[in-house]
Amino acid sequence: MAGGDLRTFIARLEGAGQLVRVRAEVSADLEIAEIASRLAARNGPAALFQNVAGHTMPVLVGAFASMERMAWALGAGSIEEVARRVGRLAASVPLAGGASVAAKVKALPKLLELARLRPKTVRSGPCQEVVRTDDADLGRLPILRSWPGDGGPFITLPQVVTADPDGKNRNVGMYRMQVFGPRRLGMHWHRDHDGARNYRAWAEQGRAMPVAVALGGDPVLTYAATAPLPYGVDELVFAAFLRGKAVRVVPCKTVPLLVPADAEIVIEGTVDPEERAREGPFGDHTGYYTPADEYPVMRVTAITHRADAVYPATVVGRFPKEDCYLAKATERIFLPVIRTVVPEVVDINLPLFGVFHNWAFVSIRKTRPGQARQVMRAIWGLGQLAYTKFLVVVDEGVNVHDTDEVLWRVGAEADPRRDTCLETGPADVLDHAAPPGGEGGKLGIDATRKLPEEVGGQAWPEPLASDPDTAARVTRRWQEYGFD
Ligand SMILES: Cc1cc2nc3c(=O)[nH]c(=O)nc-3n(C[C@H](O)[C@H](O)[C@H](O)COP(=O)(O)O)c2cc1C
Ligand SMILES: [Mn+2]
């Protein structure tokens, strides 16, 4: 697997006819976003805007906006290939403290492989070809404003690097950042996310937290920043596992953090526990504006970049947009991990219209009464899947990626009284319909075929299926009938 940086990826996209260089002058204010939205709506190519009004840096959008490009970004031919590798890793690492000694010994080679994948510190890297400290100015970056009601321009594809006060638990997360001024940025991390957790650890000691924001670099890093890894799992090691080689990192110029050496741009700074500002509104992936709210502020101490840096961005909004593909990659890659905990799960679909958390369709291999509800509770207990608002469980063999087929089964197999359950749990912060306070309702629908024990012995019909011999004969003779 070849290593990568953003320009290698751009060359790959261009070579495959999946990148358009836009030479016409465009504005970073609304215009690029409008173009990106239209490209996303028609499964279009990535775009590199080379002439952004008032700027010298080009802007890249849509690099991840198809399943094929997403797979290439991860150095693979297909996302399924990546999912299989992650599945083998998940199956070989003992999950809990209760794992047997034999299981732990068996896992050693995998764990050693991971140790080999720790980031490799180098003395210099292209991300520091240009260093600006006292004259650092966010206004030099072509940061986009996407929607007319947005509170300002936002950095939308950042890798936000933090660590706890002991220098441990390094984390790389993607959280949008509003530009408040030439050297001030908003930190829109949800409180459950790892960057926020590191921030709280510093705040408890009354200390400002160092932060570094990398833009670009190996596209696998951009994906890793969005992946739902547990706290303490280093995204740089996960990225190295996906890429098959360690990430090269360099020390920042003004903060004690390491950043990917091959990044295009790095913004360094600190987040003071006392300082907050009104962040938003922001036209979000829900298809609505998220209202303004108070968030911490990053004070910029340096901006470093390549001499000919490219500024990567994404535009979110009503689906389909580029982030749908990042999310679909996670759905596929983490399915095998879900199966190690909930083995009866066959497939899962977080449909695009459900915006990650509103809807989940899950198919299961059902063998015992009550299993659909058991699976619902497991899903509502699993990391970010806890936010799932409407959860439909169907039998194995039902194509969860076909909404009509799922809703046909809901209509046919579920009794609204017997086969639904209402629960309460954590609500997605972006869910404007959830009651205030962070808790929200959950609806589970058991659309599996019912076992005799579940329905007092009532007979349950099989869905229609053709006679296999007749079907084969008709296929064979199709043209003979005069059809084509
Ligand atoms: C385009 C995009 C924008 C995102 N914006 C935010 C955001 O503003 N705040 C946030 O907390 N999570 C945001 N996320 C989700 C997080 O990146 C994701 O949940 C990630 O797993 C968090 O990593 P962490 O657990 O290491 O903090 C965004 C994801 C994508 C793909
Ligand atoms: Mn993390």
Describe the structure.
There is one protein chain. Helix 4 (79-92) packs parallel to helix 9. Strand 7 (159-162) and strand 8 (171-173) form a beta hairpin. With 484 residues, this protein is an alpha+beta fold. The chain has helices at 6-15, 31-41, 67-73, 79-92, 101-116, 194-204, 219-224, 235-243, 322-341, 371-379, 403-413, 468-477, and strands spanning 19-22, 46-49, 59-61, 120-121, 130-132, 154-155, 159-162, 171-173, 177-181, 184-186, 209-215, 248-251, 258-260, 265-279, 282-283, 289-290, 293-305, 311-312, 345-349, 359-364, 390-395, 420-426, 439-446. Strands 5, 6, 7, 8, 9, 10, 11, 14 and 17 form a nine-stranded antiparallel β-sheet that branches. A five-stranded mixed β-sheet has the order 19-20-21-23-22, with helices on both faces. Strands 1-2-3-18 form a four-stranded mixed β-sheet. The protein has twelve helices and 23 strands. The radius of gyration is 24 Å and the shape is globular.
